[in-house]
Design brief:
- There is one protein chain.
- The chain is of the alpha/beta class and about 350 residues long.
- It is built from eight helices and 19 strands.
- It folds into three domains: about 100 residues, Translation factors (Elongation Factor Tu (Ef-tu), domain 3, Beta Barrel), CATH 2.40.30; about 140 residues, Nucleotide-binding domain of ferredoxin-NADP reductase (FNR) module (Rossmann fold, 3-Layer(aba) Sandwich); about 90 residues, Roll (Ubiquitin-like (UB roll)).
- The strands form four sheets. A six-stranded antiparallel β-sheet has the order 4-3-6-1-2-5. Strands 10-9-8-7-11-12 form a six-stranded parallel β-sheet, sandwiched between helices. The chain has a five-stranded mixed β-sheet with strand order 14-13-19-15-17.
- Helix 5 packs parallel to helix 6.
- The protein binds flavin-adenine dinucleotide (FAD) and FE2/S2 (inorganic) cluster.
Length: about 350
Amino acid sequence: MAIDFHRLKVSEIIRETPEAVSIVFELPEELKSVFDYKPGQYLTIKLPDGNPAERRAYSISSSPHWDEPIMVTVKKLSEGNLSVHLNEKLKVGDYLDVMPPIGAFVPDFETKPNSHYVLYAAGSGITPIFSILKSILKVEEHSKILLLYSNRTLESIIFHKNLIELQQNYSGRLKIIFGLTQYDNNWQGHKGRFTTLNLTALLQKNAPDFREREHFLCGPAGMMRQVLDALEILAVDKARIHKESFTAEDVIHQNGAKKPDVEILPRRVKIKLYGETFEINVEPDDTIVSALQKEGYMPPYSCQIGACSTCRAKAISGSFYMDICEALTEEEKKNGYILTCRAHPLEDNCFVDYD
Ligand SMILES: Cc1cc2nc3c(=O)[nH]c(=O)nc-3n(C[C@H](O)[C@H](O)[C@H](O)COP(=O)(O)OP(=O)(O)OC[C@H]3O[C@@H](n4cnc5c(N)ncnc54)[C@H](O)[C@@H]3O)c2cc1C
Ligand code: FES
C-alpha cells in the first residue's frame, strides 16, 4: 500500500534561534485523524514541486496532549538541502507535502503509567524530547523528569524560554540541567560536554532512582555514546533506554557497522510493488530503495536510516545484507522481513514483496 503525502498549509513560522525555526501546520478537518500522533513521533516532509526523493524526517515538537497545533522544528545544516529551504525561504501560507506521523520513540503511558524519566538532548535532538516532556507533564500527574540538554552557545538553545517557564510551572516535577560547550563567566549551568564520567555523577545526585526511571535520548552520535556508556556503567536495564537518531552515521556510531560476510555484487532482483511484479538491477552501491528510485519507481520509505520501518518488505526468496535494521523486531526478522532502505541483495534469486 502506498503511504501518501498530504499537502498541508503552513499557518505559522516561529524563529526559535538564529539557526532553527518551528513550522506550524493547519490541519483541515478531514485530515485530523490521519495526523493523530504520539509524543516522540515524526513527520516526513518534501517540497510540493521538489524531487519526491528529497524527503526528510522531522520530529514533531508539539504535544498531542496540549491544546496546540501540530508543529515541527528544523535546524539549518550548513549546505543542507531542505533544512536551509525551510529556514530561509518558507513563508506562512506556503504548502508542504507531509506524510502522516510514524515512529516508535514514544513513552508508554498505558503499560508504564506514573514512571519517572530522565531525558537527554543535544542541539536539534530536543525536538522529540520537548514533545515527550510536555506530554509527560500533562498526562502523568506524579511523574518526575530530569532533562539534561546540551548546546554550543546560549543563543543556540532551542525552546530555552519555554523550558524555563515549564520548570517554573512544574517545579518539584521537572528539573533541567542546561549544558553549554561555549560559555562566559556568567554561565551558571553545566560547563562543557556531558561525558560518561560527569553523567554518572549528575544522575546519582539529581535522579538517584535512575535505575527505576525511563531514559529517552536524542542527539548527535557522540553525545548518545556518552549517555549509553554511563547508563551501562550504572547498570540501567536496556529495556528502559529509548533512543532516536537523526542520521545513519549516528546509528552506526552507536551500534557499530555490521560488515557483510560475502562480497556485494550487482544482482537482478524481482520486486512486487503496488500490485505490479517486475525485475530491476541492483548495483553494489545501491539499496533496494535507491535501485527502485533509479528505475523511476517510488517505493515507500521515510528515514532511510533503518529506524522507522516505512520501507519494510518481505523477502520471499534470497538473502540480503543490512548494515542497520534497528526498526525490525526479532519476530519480523524471523518471518523474512527486511528494511529495503538498507538492504543489499546477496543472491540472484532475490524476490522482494512490498505488497
Ligand atoms: C527520525 C528523524 C527525525 C528527525 N528530526 C529532526 C528534527 O526534528 N529537526 C531537525 O532539524 N532535523 C531532524 N532530522 C534530520 C532531518 O531529517 C534532515 O536530515 C536534516 O534536516 C538535514 O536535511 P537537509 O536536506 O537540510 O540536508 P542534506 O541535504 O540531507 O545534507 C545533510 C548534510 O550533509 C551535507 N552534504 C549534503 N550533500 C553533501 C555532499 N555532496 N558532500 C558532502 N556533504 C554533503 C550537508 O552539508 C549537510 O550538512 C531527523 C531525522 C530523522 C531520521
Ligand atoms: S525508510 Fe525508515 S527504516 Fe527504511
